[in-house]
Design goal:
By secondary structure, the chain is of the alpha+beta class. Helices cover 37% and strands 26% of the residues. The strands form 3 sheets. A 6-stranded mixed β-sheet has the order 1-8-5-4-2-3. The protein is elongated, with a radius of gyration of 25 Å.
Length: 253
């Protein structure tokens, strides 16, 4: 995203972005470090604006109680920035996201606003790139999780496995309910043994595996294997659907 604001509004906008960064990193189960890069030798913009912008970045991090390092002279020629460096499961650090203040583009586009003194002033722009390159981030996330993606981003969230053909009708109705809830659900109706279908779902790192037999059909329930929680549960259909609603509502951007 690109955020246009006055120099005085840099801190409040950076605070909002930092909250968003923290939310995302926690959801993806990454730890991260922050680094402020300051004015390089060759730069555009007045020193007073650079100092105000850099001070705003530091104040935002201090206000959030977030530790950070300083890369003196490591900023872009058009403004200071905060780099977001994530740490993966192998303790490797990756620079992905950036909160970049930009004095250049507002100047080049001749942007302006009328300030409180009824005079035309130049805004600044903040580049908000929390994940960096999306493809690169997904590659890092895949390695970090070993394919065990968080529920909200798993390609298949639930696999429904009816034990026999007599259980197919109930399985199909349940699958339609999940799809109506926008849960990525699949039916495993292949002519294979129950154990093989369960192993296939486990190899595919599906977070939830539902097995349906005579008892589940009779009681309108499910036998759930929650691979993330490492639990096996007998739930009513209502309890299962409520659990999925909770899972789906955990992440809201």
């Amino acid at each position: 995203a690109h955020i246009f604001c006055t120099p005085e509004q840099i801190k409040e906008n950076v605070l909002e972005i930092l909250d968003f960064v923290d939310l995302l990193m926690k959801r993806f189960e990454f730890t991260y470090q922050l680094e402020i890069s300051t004015k390089p030798e060759k730069a555009i913009g007045e020193n007073v604006i650079w100092e105000k912008a850099t001070k705003s970045l530091k104040q935002a991090l201090d206000e959030q109680g977030l530790p950070y390092s300083i890369d003196e002279g490591g900023g872009a020629f058009y403004g200071p920035k905060i780099d977001i460096k994530i740490t993966d499961a192998l303790k490797r650090k990756w620079q992905c996201g950036t909160i970049q203040v930009d004095f250049n583009l507002p100047e080049r586009f001749d942007l302006g606003y009328i300030d409180r003194n009824n005079e035309r002033s130049r805004p600044v722009m903040i580049h908000r790139a929390i994940l960096g390159s999306f493809e690169r981030f997904i590659g890092i996330l895949t390695e970090h999780t070993g394919g065990e993606f968080p529920f909200f981003i798993a390609p298949t969230q639930v696999v429904i496995i009816p034990i026999g053909e007599v259980h197919h009708s109930y399985a199909k109705k349940l699958a339609r309910q999940l799809l109506d809830m926008e849960v990525d659900a699949e039916l495993s109706l292949r002519n294979e043994s129950l154990n093989k279908r369960i192993r296939t779902a486990e190899k595919q790192r599906v977070p939830m595996i539902v097995v349906l037999g005579d008892e589940e059909v009779a009681n309108k329930g499910v036998a759930l294997r929650d691979r993330r929680a490492r639990e096996q549960l007998q739930l009513s259909q209502e309890e299962f659907l409520n659990l999925l609603k909770e899972k789906m509502s955990e992440v809201y951007f």
